[in-house]
Design brief:
- With 339 residues, this protein is an all-alpha fold.
- Among the domains are: 36 residues, no CATH class; 163 residues.
- It is built from twelve helices and no strands.
- α6 runs antiparallel to α7 and α6 packs antiparallel against α10.
- The relative contact order is 0.06.
Length: 339
C-alpha cells in the first residue's frame, strides 16, 4: 500500500541512471581495460599494423581526374603552334613537288629541243614513216595549270567532236544527194567545203587561242577566243536548224526527207542530233571558260596592252613599218628635189 501513500503532487526524486550498481560496475571495467592510449607507442603500432586493411579489400578502380573543358592559354598556343608546323610541312612538301616537276620539265625540255632551240612539235601524233611531220607542240600536263587543265581538255574534245560531226554531215549530205541528184547537189558540195574549211579553222581560231590563254594567262587570247567562239556557237545553231541548200543535215532538212526516203531521213536525223549536242556543249563550255576567265584577273585593258606590245615587238611588223617609213621619206625627198 506504500505505492498509494506517495504524494503524486510532490516533486519527483532525481534519479541518476549512472548510480545504478550494474552500470557503475561496467564502466569501471572499461576504464581499467582501456587505460591511457598513446598512439606512438610500439604496442599500438604493432596493433594497428596487424589490423591493416588488406589491398584486396580496397577498390581496384584507378582514380580518374576530371579535366577541365576549357583549355588553358598554354594549351591553345601549343595547338596553334602544332597547326602552323603542320601547315609549314604541307607547304614544304608542295614546294618540293613543284621543284621536282620543274626539274623534270627542264630535263624533258632540254632533251626535246631541236637545233633551233624550240620544243619539238608533237601534234598531230603522226607515225614516223608519214611524209608530214607534227607542226604544233601541245602538252596539257606541262603547259596548262592544274585548275584549268580539265576545261582545256574539254575544249579539245569539243573540237574533235566538231570534226567528227562535220565528217558525218558530209556522209549524210552524200545520202541526201543520192536521193535526188538534181535538187541536193549544192548541199553535198557545201558539206565538203564545210568539212575541209571549218575543221582546221576551228582548231586555229578558237581552240588554240583558249589553249594559249590558259597556258600564259593572256587577256588578248581570251578576248579573241570569246569573239570567235561566239560565232561558232551561232553556226552550231544554224547547222542544227538545217536550212535546205546550206549544206547542213539539220532538223528541217531531215524531217523534209521522211516522206521521200525514210532511211536517208534517219541518217540525217542522227547528224542533226550531233549538231544539237555541239550547240549545247558549245554554250556550256563558253560559260565555263568565262567563269575561269573572271578568276584570272584578265581585262580588256590588259588585252589592249598585250596586243600593242605584240605588234611593236613583232619583227615582221617592224620591218614593214621601217620599209613604209623609208619609202615615204624617199618620196618626200624626191618631191622636194623636183621642186
Amino acid at each position: 500500500m506504500s505505492g498509494f501513500d506517495s504524494n503524486p503532487f510532490a516533486d519527483p526524486v532525481d534519479v541518476n541512471p549512472f548510480q545504478d550498481a550494474s552500470v557503475t560496475q561496467a564502466t569501471s571495467k572499461v576504464t581499467e581495460n582501456v587505460g591511457e592510449f598513446n598512439p606512438f607507442s610500439a604496442v599500438d603500432m604493432v596493433h594497428h599494423s596487424e589490423t591493416t586493411i588488406p589491398i584486396s579489400a580496397a577498390s581496384s578502380q584507378p582514380a580518374v581526374l576530371q579535366t577541365s573543358v576549357e583549355q588553358s592559354p598554354q594549351a591553345t598556343a601549343a595547338a596553334a603552334q602544332a597547326k602552323l608546323i603542320k601547315q609549314q610541312e604541307e607547304l614544304e612538301r608542295k614546294a618540293a613537288e613543284l621543284d621536282r616537276k620543274e626539274q623534270d620539265l627542264q630535263n624533258r625540255t632540254e632533251t626535246g629541243r631541236t637545233n633551233t632551240g624550240a620544243k619539238e612539235n608533237n601534234w598531230p601524233p603522226l607515225p614516223k614513216f608519214f611524209p608530214f611531220k607534227p607542226f604544233i607542240y601541245q602538252n596539257f600536263e606541262e603547259d596548262i595549270p592544274e585548275e584549268y587543265r580539265r576545261i582545256c581538255k574539254r575544249m579539245y574534245y569539243l573540237w574533235m567532236f566538231h570534226s567528227v560531226t562535220l565528217f558525218l554531215n558530209l556522209l549524210a549530205c552524200l545520202a541526201y544527194f543520192t536521193a535526188d541528184t538534181a535538187a541536193y547537189g549544192v548541199d553535198f558540195g557545201l558539206s565538203i567545203l564545210w568539212f575541209i574549211l571549218f575543221t582546221p579553222v576551228a582548231f586555229i581560231c578558237w581552240y588554240r587561242p583558249v589553249y594559249k590563254a590558259f597556258r600564259s594567262d593572256s587577256s588578248f587570247s581570251f578576248f579573241f577566243f570569246f569573239f570567235v567562239f561566239f560565232f561558232q556557237v551561232a553556226v552550231y545553231i544554224i547547222q542544227t536548224v538545217g536550212i535546205p541548200g546550206w549544206g547542213n543535215s539539220g532538223w528541217i532538212s531531215s524531217i523534209s526527207m521522211i516522206g521521200k526516203n525514210l532511211s536517208v531521213a534517219v541518217v540525217m536525223m542522227v547528224v542533226a542530233g550531233f549538231f544539237t549536242v555541239n550547240a549545247v556543249l558549245g554554250v556550256i563550255l563558253l560559260k565555263m571558260v568565262h567563269s575561269k576567265y573572271r578568276r584570272t584577273g584578265a581585262s580588256f585593258t590588259k588585252a589592249q596592252q598585250e596586243f600593242s606590245e605584240g605588234v611593236l615587238t613583232n619583227r615582221s611588223v617592224q620591218t614593214a613599218a621601217a620599209s613604209a617609213a623609208t619609202s615615204a621619206a624617199q618620196g618626200a625627198f624626191g618631191r622636194s628635189q623636183g621642186n
